[in-house]
Each structure stands twice: as structure tokens, then as C-alpha cells.
Amino acid sequence: MQIIVCIKQVPGTNKVAIDESTGVLKRDGVESKINPYDLYALEAGLRLREALGGTVTVVSMGPPQAEAVIREAYMLGADAGALISDRQFAGSDVLATSYTLSQGIRALGPFDLIICGKQTTDGDTAQVGPALAEFLNIPHVTWVRAIPEATPERLRVEQDLADSYELVELAYPCLITVEKGINQPRLPSYRRKLATADRPVRMIGRRELQDQDELRYGLNGSPTQVERIFPPEVRSEQVLWEGEAPELTAKLWQLLREAKYI
Question: Domain Electron transfer flavoprotein alpha/beta-subunit N-terminal, which positions (predicted)?
Fold first, then answer.
């Protein structure tokens, strides 16, 4: 089975500067890590490989330094990795990102299953997985909380619907996005780090993609634009009141009115 796991490099801190002209995060020089939800996706892929055989290939989209998360995935057990990277991909919104990923995955060749984390901690849209499936024209299931059965022909998954769950069966090729409760990710192996130190990471630029239309990528291919983005203002002042409930309620009401919250 040929399994592809999509992973992303995200900031390891919430103290990230923002480019006010473009509305995108300034990632240069910021400590980064694998998106936490993607660790569950990778673990799901590794367990399916152990049960059914095949390979697990991790795919990421980002600047050259995102190769670090590919290397970390090797330490967790991934067989191969590819980084979709080009200056023309910068500033991609959900639509452009999903389309670029779909083109990069097509360049890699045939696959059976794509696994994504439910969402990323920097964007939190939870839209890339479903959009990727649509661009690849394959069935998909989101919010997968368990994989009770997997065979070489099909996959049976439990889709979390909050108050209930639905049992869904999919034929390959297909895509799923997973919840963090699906498993417990394994720890990276120092022995694997040494063994995979020379393992190549395939670099995929725009010239390697089938669709060469520049209007489909990066800011040019992003129909949604951020009008303004800024970090929340940090306030540390405190007010301590003592008294009975009616008196405190009146004070709070007055404070909210003065702040124009009501």
C-alpha cells in the first residue's frame, strides 16, 4: 500500500511577527515543529503500513527550512519524503495550498491513501484535507476517530460527529483527516536519525508540476486575502472589588458600559 501523509511545519510559539503588508506570518528565524495533529496522521499511516505492508511517504509544503519536519518524520519511521517548495507558492491561502499539494502529489505518482491531520495550529481552518481530496477527485472522510478495519482493498473508519459517530467504508484511493484521539504517536528514534541522515528529501518546485499556470499558485492563486491581521493586545492591569453581589454587579455593568462593550 502506498500511503501519503501530509505534514506541515508550524511555529513552535505563539509569539510570531506578522507582515502587515501581506497579512502572512514571518516564519524566518522562528522555532518550528511538526503540526501536532499531523503526528497522529503519521502514526495512523505507520500502523497501516505495519498491518498491510507498503510505504509511508510524508509530503510537506513550505520554505526550504521545512525540510526539518521531513527529517523528523524519518526519525518516526517514514520511508520517504518530499517538500513542495518554491518562492511562487508564498502567501497561499487554503485554496492555493490545496491545489499546490494536489499537483505535488500527482508528481509523486500513484497512491492508495492520503492521511492528513484534522487541522493546523497556525491556520485552524480544517479545510486543506477536504479541498485536496476534491482537487484529486477522490472520496474523503473527515474527523476520523478510529480505523476499525483496513484491508488491501478498502478502509473502514469511524467519523466523529460530536454526539454520535458514523461508520464509513471507502475504496482506494481515498483521503481521511484524523482526530488526535485516534492513537498515541510514537517517539522519535535516535537510531533512526542516524540511519536516515543521508536519506534524500525530494524537492518539488513549480516547474515539476503538471499545471504551469502561475495564476493558480501563491498570492496570485489565492482568492481570499487577509485585510488586516495583528497579534492580540496583552493587558496585565487588574481590578479587585469586594462587596455584595448587587453592588459588584452594578460596578461590572458600569465598567462594561464605559469600555463600550455593551
Answer: 22-213
